[in-house]
Amino acid sequence: MEATAPFLVVGLGNPGREYAKNRHNVGFMVADLIAERIGAKFGRHRRAVADVAEGRLGFGGPRLVLVKPLTYMNLSGGPAVALAQFYKVPPEQIIAVHDELDIPYGQIRAKLGGGEGGHNGLRSMSKSLGTKDYARVRFGISRPPGRQDPADYVLNDFSATERKELEFLVDRAADVAEAVSSKGVEWAQNAYNGS
């Protein structure tokens, strides 16, 4: 493993103002907050269809490359793999931050590898990277109520009730992503998955 390689934190979402507040865009929200925390600004990368921000997590902490793919969710893997190659990042130092239907709203969990649960962004990343063995920060959005189509549900904005907690939860998801990069998935799971 390349000791000097940064962690690639891929916030999954869709580009464009009309998607900005969607449930499916929580990965972008978390990436934006981490960039703000480390004093980094997003700019278009020359080697990938993505906005990228780079910085260090605290004094002597790991280097982070924050990524917001601009290809739309189902093609997120292309920019992720291009940037992993550019920065020489091994899969074990890649963290995908994404919305998760199978976790209740208000819960955030760290995980290493596993399936994609029908998430097109994860499916694209796994296919492009050729492995599922990368870390995930799963932001619970719950299943849609009644018979609502999950595809429509994820492309809707958070409800008024959900928005009351959203800022706190995005903050917590950023904490989890930072913990995964600085202390590892297992540490983050023990610290955050139960609550």
Short synopsis of the structure:
This protein is an alpha/beta fold and 195 residues long. It has helices at 26-38, 77-86, 120-129, 150-154, 160-183, 185-193; strands at residues 7-11, 43-44, 50-56, 63-69, 94-100, 108-112, 135-140.
Question: How does this model look, in words?
Answer:
Strands 2-3-4-1-5-7-6 form a seven-stranded mixed beta sheet, sandwiched between helices. It contains six helices and seven strands. It has 195 residues and is of the alpha/beta class.
Q: Over all CA atoms, what is the radius of gyration?
A: 15 Å
Please give the share of residues in helix: 25-40%
- Strand content bin: 15-25%
What would the principal axes of the Cα set say about the shape?
Answer: globular
The appropriate CATH architecture is 3-Layer(aba) Sandwich
End-to-end distance, in Å?
32 Å
Q: Which stretches of 5+ consecutive residues score pLDDT under 50?
A: none
DSSP strand count: 7
Number of domains: 1
How does the major sheet shape up? Answer: 7 strands, mixed
* Structural class label: alpha/beta
Mean pLDDT: 95
CATH topology: the name is Rossmann fold
Biggest sheet: strands side by side, in what order?
2-3-4-1-5-7-6
User: Number of helical segments?
Assistant: 6
CATH superfamily: Peptidyl-tRNA hydrolase
Name the helix and strand elements from N-terminus to C-terminus, one letter apiece. Answer: EHEEEHEEHEHHH
Keywords:
single chain, alpha/beta, 195 residues, globular, Rossmann fold, 6 helices, 7 strands, seven-stranded mixed beta sheet
